[in-house]
Amino acid sequence: GDNDLPGTDGGARPIGGHPGDAAGSHTANATSFTVFVLGAAGGPVESRVSGYLIHQANSSNMLGFDCGSLMSGLRQAAKVVSDTAPFNAVKGKLSSRDIHRNIISGYLVSHAHLDHMSGLIIASADERASNKTAGILPKAILGLNSTLVNIHNHAFNNQLWPDLALFGFYFYQQLIPGSVAHNVSGVQGLDAIAFPVSHGSNYLSTCFLLGTNLSNLEAADGSAILLCGDLGTDANEKSVYMNDMWTAVAPLVASSRLKAIMIECSFPTATSTGALFGHLTPALLFQELHTLAKKVGSDNALKGMKVLIQHIKENDVDDDTGVSASVGVVVQELESLNDLGVDLIFTHKKVGGAISV
Ligand SMILES: Nc1ncnc2c1ncn2[C@@H]1O[C@@H]2COP(=O)(O)O[C@H]2[C@H]1O
User: Fold this and answer.
1) Residue range 35-59, pLDDT digits in tens
2) Residue 277 in contact with residue 233, Cβ under 8 Å?
3) What is the reported pLDDT for 208?
4) Measured between alpha carbons, how far is 120 from 68 in angstroms, rounded to an integer?
5) How far is 87 from 91, CA to CA, in rounded Å?
6) Cis omega before residue 251 (within 30°)?
7) 234 lines ligand 1 (CB under 6 A)
8) Which of 9, 155, 186, 282 has its CA 20 to 30 A from that of 233?
9) Rg (CA), the chain
10) At 224, is the secondary structure helix, strand, or coil?
């Protein structure tokens, strides 16, 4: 199932490279990555906004991705993390504080909107300044230059919040589009590539390709996951960013190296273009997935691909039942538009849990 815990075989396993797979089929393999869901909505409830931890199988660290929600979700997810290899080697349950301080080694931030980093900022005071003798390293905050400048100027600026980066808690690691960053956040062998995308007029967001052997996207080996921040289509945003990204990742789909795409779908299809503010609807998302499939070369190219849907707006949640009619519309539309046979996984149903890919 899509929320099975990894590591049930308990042992080390090779990452990537499944030569037995038929091209274009994305069948279940050993876990390459686990996504812990701390929050998954596009607002408005502060404890449910986007927040994820990404774990590469067997690594002793994790990376935050867009920690709008952090500690609220981590309290719920601590047990699931504790049961995941290699963290299950420690007896007993890890606390959310242990995980925050000692297991998260860095943060990928797609853009500096509050709902993508407020949790990181608020929890930062409980992290520690680096201290070589105590073995405490500063943690990387990774993103495009524009994102890092916004965090530095508008969040960790001694006004909105103490400048904990300056005080040794963090360092800013700029990701340059088109270059591969290696050993991301101290995780040996983990590479990252940042793809800029447009999120409303004159504003950049980022998709992060995370995985092994990303210096050679044409190679047969090395699993990867694509983590997309908020984004609008090229047609709506008058850009070419999404097209360029699909061109770059298409070879990874053809070789079955790409294990999952996490992507937003904020509003129902009926939303007018002027009210999208740089976001996707189900129709626009499937238009994009069709573009990717075409680049890979067949209508079947994405069959079985795990597509993790995130950032649905939960604006009309009923306080008593927790039901949101508009979320229901987005889910139903995605399911009925799914002529590509992708494996749709709804992250908002997994808050406090894990998704293995
Ligand atoms: N021009 C605007 N008018 C009204 N709401 C907006 C405008 N621009 C952005 N927003 C809202 O502000 C939100 C900021 O986070 P999101 O990008 O998730 O979604 C955005 C919209 O819901």
Assistant:
1) 999 999 999 999 999 999 999 999 9
2) no
3) 98
4) 7
5) 9
6) no
7) no
8) 155
9) 19
10) strand
